[in-house]
Amino acid sequence: MPEVNTDKIFAAFLLRLEEVAKIEDFDDIEKEFLGKNSLLSEERKSLSSLNEVSRKKYGKLLQDLSNNITSKLDEEKTKFKSKFFIQSELNDNNDISIDWYKNLGSKNHVLTNVMNEVVDIFAAIGYTVSTGPEAETSWHNFDALNTPDWHPARYESDTLYLDNKLEKLLRTQTSTVQVRHMQNNKPPVYIVAPGRVYRSDQLDATHSPVFHQIEGLAVDENLTFSDLKGTLEYFVKEFFGKDLKTKFIPHFFPFTEPSAEVLVSWKDGEWLEILGCGMVDPNVFKHVGYDTDSQGFAFGVGVERLAMIRYGIDHIKNFYENDLRFLRQF
Predict the structure, then answer these.
(1) What local confidence, expressed as pLDDT, does residue 99 receive?
(2) Which residues contact 189 (CB under 8 A, 6 or more apart)?
(3) Looking at the chain, which terminus has fewer C-beta neighbours within 10 angstroms, N or C?
(4) CA–CA separation, 163 vs 268, rounded Å?
(5) Under CATH, what is the fold of the domain 110-327?
(6) How distant is the alpha carbon of residue 7 from its chain centre?
(7) Residue 3: its pLDDT value, please?
(8) How many CB atoms lie within 10 A of CB 165?
(9) Cis peptide leading into residue 188 (ω within 30°)
């Protein structure tokens, strides 16, 4: 009885399965090994020429081969489809609930960067950082800083008070940190006090009820206005550039005498005010227990103001809206 080598046919079938690259290839393999023109189909046609015993024996051999091929073909086809569709989902259908944005790590806010840069500039010439509470007493915020009861800054329309007696408030300036530092430390003093401050201001392009300040204080022997001027010119040129021009114009602050505003020459020769400064008033020294003959100077700068000038930002609200399109520029 003539017989084909079924093991050889099945081995050839397995080799063809390894070549599958797309789902349609399974149809081609099925036609090749089980179709009407396949070797298996041709062998079935020869069964009629065999006697009954040989026909049953050889027929069973061919049927077993057909069943094995069909079973293996279905198994591999299912595996391929599963792998194919899983990969298609990964490639074509993003899960918007997971990792929609790439994890690029955290970044500092532009105001934090500016504040840190200012602190670093002063740290390079010996200043240290001092901090204090944002909820303050009227004494630290006004009285100790030589601001009398009748001063407009103490009006409820300008200051956010926390009690009906007007004794507690949200600090309007980080100069309160200077007062607290001098109460606990004797000269020499060289500090900067960065932090958040609050004023009852209407929001507009350059004003906000919440903003950030950096106050500076130096108290030492023989300090003069020339030392103040040189210190602030150094800061301005370090922050804005060596070629920037500055000028000081007279001003009034209750806690310094004499007092001045610092202006910088900006685009098209326009002069912009960036900070206030002056020699510490003797009354301030008296309030904190210093000798009234002490010599020192103080200054204060708005962080938002510095950032707006440097980066050409036209509205202060941009810093607080959490718009990633804005924040990612810095």
Answers:
(1) 58
(2) 181, 182, 217, 218, 219, 220, 296
(3) N
(4) 47
(5) BirA Bifunctional Protein; domain 2 (3.30.930)
(6) 66
(7) 67
(8) 8
(9) yes
- Give the span between the Cα atoms of 250 and 276, in whole angstroms: 10
CB 114 within 8 A of CB 307: yes
DSSP tag of 46: G
- Give CA–CA dist 39/41, Å, rounded: 5
Which pLDDT value is given to residue 163?
A: 92
Question: Which alpha helices (H) appear in the chain, and where do they start and end?
Answer: 6-17, 25-34, 39-45, 52-92, 110-123, 138-141, 175-184, 225-240, 282-287, 303-311, 324-327
Based on the number of CB atoms within 10 Å of its own CB, is 225 exposed (0-12), middle (13-18) or buried (19 or more)? middle
- Asked if residues 108 and 116 have their Cβ atoms less than 8 Å apart, the reply is yes
Q: Which residues pair with 148 in a beta bridge?
A: none
Residues 6+ away with beta carbon under 8 Å from 123: 129, 192
Phi, psi of 168 (to 5 degrees): -125, 145
- Check: CB of residue 275 under 8 Å from CB of residue 262: yes
Say what the pLDDT of residue 94 is: 61
Provide φ and ψ at 190, rounded to 5°. Answer: -140, 100
Residue type, 42: E
Q: Rounded CA gap, 12 and 68, in Å? A: 13
Tokens read off for 197 = 């401050």
Q: Report which residue type is found at 249.
A: I
pLDDT averaged per 10 residues in sequence order, the chain, 330 residues: 72 84 84 81 76 78 83 86 75 61 76 95 96 95 93 88 93 95 95 95 87 96 95 94 90 94 84 93 95 93 92 91 89
Range 138-162 burial, b when 16+ CB lie within 10 A, else e:
bebbbbbbbbeeeeeebeeeebeee
Residue 277 has a pLDDT of 96
